[in-house]
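In these records, each integer encodes one residue's backbone shape. Here is one protein:

___
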Amino acid sequence: MKLLLILCWVLGVSADGQHEDLAVTGCSDSDGEMMYTLEREEVWYADFINKRGVEPQPDFIDHITYQGGYEQAVALLQICKQNLKTRRAAMKDVPLEKDPPSSPMIYNRDKVELGVRNVLICHVSGFYPAPVNVSWTKNGEKVTEGTSINRPFPNKDGSFTQISRLDFIPQQGDIYSCSVEHLALDQPLTRMWDVETTQPGVGPAAFCGIGLTIGLLGVAAGTFFLIKGNECS
């Protein structure tokens, strides 16, 4: 059984509002994580495989740079692993606490249009320990291409949240599913999502056409009687 140690602390809180800048460090015997978040959005994380810092920030915000961030992350990772050994020795007879995730939520990122590329999002929260395993299917067949999942994000109650994404092109009748596996679950939690679009019907268009025709006839008749009235006077 893998034991994880997660440390999370607040770097700063703005007095003008509820703005939080968090730093999260986590480790196991073979892996590690270090990231900075702003308003619960990831703005920097350490890529220990490629030995560099990554700044996944959108173009429309003022870019935030963490000078020396990767070197600091490496040092914190070593401290985390040492603390993990100490905690493991102290807690070897304590049963592992396990909280299952709530039912996953699936929603589309953009308005669904047939044949137009979109993203399905599977939101999983409330579980402990991290992580969860998320898998996708399309019409009952497992899908791996175009899938991704973010790092576990700590909630204020000590549980975690993870979000998985699936790039897809919606076609009428397609059915997708998101399945979540976790240590606290006896069987996966699965949520279904099917492609639904609202196509314009013939009935409303015909009704509007008839209404417009009647309206034009009414205007023509009114104009005719107005002219006749003027001639009589």
Summary: DSSP finds two helices and 14 strands in the chain. Confidence is low (pLDDT under 50) at residues 198-233. The helical segments are 69-90, 202-232. The longest strand covers residues 118-127.
